[in-house]
Amino acid sequence: MKSSPHAAARAGKFPFLRFYFAIQSYLQEDSVTPFHVKRQRCVLTLYGGLVTALTIASYAVPSAFVPALLGTMFPGAGFLHWAAGDQFAIATVLFLAGLGLFMMALVLWFATGNLIAPLLIWTILAAVSSAPNLFSLSSTQAASGWPSLLAPFAVIGLGLAVLHPIKPPRAQSVVVLPEPKNSDAAELSLEELQRLRLLLDRALQPVERFDGFEWRDQFQSAAVRYQVNFVAYALALARHRTAPAADAYYYEAQQRLLTKIGDRRMWSYWRLENAWGNFRLDADPIPHQNIMYPGFTALQMAIGGTGNDLILHDKGREWRRYDLAAITGRLAQQYVTAPYGLLACEPNWIYPLCNLITMTGLKAADAHTGAGHWPRLAEVFLRSLDREGTKADGSFIAFRSALTGIAPPTPGGIVMQSFPCLFLNSLAPDLAEAHWQRIRAKLDKENWPRLFWPADIGNYGVSRATSYTATAAAAAEMGDTEIADECLRRLEMECPSHLDHGVIHRERASLWAHALEIAARSTRRNGWRDLVAHSRSESGPRLAQASYPEVLIARAQAEGNKLHLVLYPGRSDGTQSIEFSGLMPEQRYRTGQEGEPVLTADRAGHATLRVVLHGRTALTIKPLA
C-alpha cells in the first residue's frame, strides 16, 4: 500500500518527514510484510541512525553541547552528563524525573492524541540539561563515556529492524453467507421493560439536557458521545427484536439521540485533538482520521431508522450538516487510501474495535443508501484486520500507534477479545465464529475473575459491569446462551439491580454497561447481524404513537394486515390513547379488547384507540371480515 496523500502533503512541508517517508518507501517494497512491521523498521532505522550520528558528534563538539546531544538520544539522558562526583545522585534523580515526565507525556499522547506533548517534553529536557546551574549542578563535574553507553540503542534498533519476527499471513477470504431472516418478534418481560426505561428516560429528555449521562472526559472511553451511541444501538436492537412495527417513542428517542450527538459538547473535543495530534486547525470532526465520531455516528444513523441528517450545532445554531451517504462516502474513501487498511480512531492511534464498529456502520448504511461500500472494501479490510489488528495467535490487539507501528500489550482482559465479535459477526460470520471459539476455550479453562478485569470503561469505576455486559452481548449474538446467562448472573451478584419508581438500575454500573445489558437481553443468535442487514419497510399496520412512560411496548409485530401488540402500563393501570398508521383506508378493524370495540381507519390509514391497560395487555388489530 502507498502512503496516504495526507502523509505525503505533510512530508512536503517538513524535510525530516521527506527523509522519513523515503526510508519507509525503501523498506516496504515487498507486499508480504505487514505495514506495521515496515513502519517499525523505518522508525527503528531512523532512531538507530540518529543515535549513531549523535554518538560520533559527541566526540567532536565542545563538552558544553554533549548534554543536548545525550538528551536528543534519549529523554532526560542529558542530565547523566553531570552524574559525577558528589552530584551523581542528584543528576541521576533528575534523569529519572525527566524520564517519568516523558512517560506521562506518552500517556497523554495515548489518552488524547496529543502528539505535541511527548515531543515538547523531550525537547525541553534536552535543552534544560545543558544548563546545570538551573539545578545547582557544577559544570566542572562531568561524566564522560555516556554517549558510548547509549550507542547500543543504535545497534539494538537496527537489529530489531532487521530481525523483527513477522506473523505468517493467514489465508483470508470473504465468505458470503446468506443474511439471517427476520425471526418472529420476541416479547419483553415487565422486568426487561423496566430495565429499558433507564435508557428511554435519558433518550427522551429534552435534547439540550443530559441528565443521567456520566461526564468524565471527552477523549477516552467514558466520553458522553459513546454513551449516546450505545444507548441508540441498544434501543435499535430492542426495537428490531421485539417491536419492529412500533414507531411511537422509539422513533422520537432516536431523533433526540441524533440531535444530542450533534451537540457541540459531543464534538468540540476534536478542535484540540486535531490541532495537537494532526497539526490541523479544522474543528469539523467528520472529514479526517477520527472514526470514533463519524464511524460510530454512521452506525447510529443507519440503524436508528429516522432518516434524518446529522446536524453539528452550537446552542441551537446549525454549523455543519451531513447526511448518511456523505459520512459513509468519506469514510469509504479514507479506507481506500489507508496505508494500514484500517483507520485511526483518533490522531495516529488505530483501534481494531473502532474499525469494526465503523465498517459495520458502512454495511448498515448500504442497506439504506444502496452505496455498496462493504462489498467493495470487504476483502482488503478483512485482510488488513488480520495483518495489522491481530497477534500471531489470532487475538485482537487493543490499539496500535500509526506513527511507529508499535502495539503495546493488550489491557482490559477478555472483553477486548469478546466484544469485537458482536460487530465482526455482521461482517464475517465465519471469522467471528472462529474467534469466539478461542474465547470460549479461555472461558472454559481459565479463572473468570482474572479474565474479567474490574474496570468499568464507561465511567472508570471499579466494577466488572462493562466486561460482563459486553461479553454477554457478544455471546448472545454468537448464540452462546450459556456464557451470556453466566455473565448476567455474575453481573447481578457483583452489581445488584435496584427498582426505583418503575426503573431498574445498577448503582455501580456505567450507562455503557446498562446499554450493553439491554443489547444482551434483547438479541438472539445473529440478531445484531440481522439488524445491520435490515432495510426498514414502512408497509403494514404500525403503532405510531403511545405516551411514554404511561404505555410500555413489550411487543409490536405486523403480520400481513394484522398487528400484534403487548402493552403494559408504565405507571398505573388505566385508559390510554394509542395511535396507528399504515392501516387500510376506511377499513374497520377488530381490536381483541373486551367487548370487541371496532376501530375504523381514516382515509390516510390512521386511527386512534382508547385502550384499558391492566398488567400485561395483549391486542390483535385485524380487519373485519
CATH topology of the largest domain: Glycosyltransferase
The percent range for strand residues is 5-15%
Structural class: alpha+beta
Number of DSSP strands? 15
Determine and state the CATH class of the largest domain: Mainly Alpha
Helix count equals: 24
Known CATH architecture of the largest domain: Alpha/alpha barrel
Residue ranges: pLDDT <50 for 5 or more in a row? 1-6
The end-to-end span amounts to 65 Å
Helix content: 40-55%
Side-by-side strand order of the widest sheet: 9-10-15-12-13
Shape: elongated
- Count structural domains: 3
Radius of gyration: 29 Å
Average pLDDT rating: 88
What's the arrangement of secondary structure elements?
Layout lengths: L4 H9 L1 H13 L7 H24 L7 H8 L14 H25 L3 H13 L17 H5 L1 H12 L26 H14 L20 H19 L5 H14 L2 H4 L1 H10 L15 H11 L5 E5 L2 E6 L1 H14 L6 E3 L2 E2 L1 H18 L3 H17 L10 E2 L13 H13 L1 H17 L2 H4 L13 H13 L3 H14 L2 E4 L2 E4 L4 H12 L4 H7 L8 E5 L4 E9 L2 E8 L4 E8 L6 E3 L7 E3 L6 E7 L3 E7 L2
Antiparallel strand pairs: 1-2, 3-4, 4-5, 6-7, 8-11, 9-10, 10-15, 11-14, 12-13, 12-15
